[in-house]
Amino acid sequence: MNSIAIKAIDWAKSQSEIILQTGAPLGFGMQSMAREMGVKHPERIRIDFVESIPLPDDEGLLSIAHSFGLLSDEIKSLTLGYGVYIRSGMENIRLLTHEFRHVQQYEQYDSIDSFLEQYIHQVMTVGYRNAPLEIDARAHEIPVYKSDS
Question: pLDDT at residue 75 above 90?
Fold first, then answer.
């Protein structure tokens, strides 16, 4: 693993911890939606609504993340394990289901490290839009959610 990937994983883990400490747990309806996205443990998810998604302080990491379209001042959300950042006012069903699918992917890979190694490799190889993990998340987006209750 290269030094940029190591820095990205370290940053992601530290941000995930912040979200898990400060974010809000999902209500029952949102947990049900997360389960529909394949999440095994939706009760572990925390959402932190923020004015802007935090960016890494490391200039090299930030530069590479910008160049591959991973992080910018414009992103609406970011999932890091069970922690989800969402820009205030940007939340909608499509965005939530997309991010919940990323939580499911993290569960499938068993760790932030394993997921990000694969995710970073995909994005650096085929680009953000064509990365299989992004294609999968987009394929699971629901524009409008209809609850059973």
Answer: no
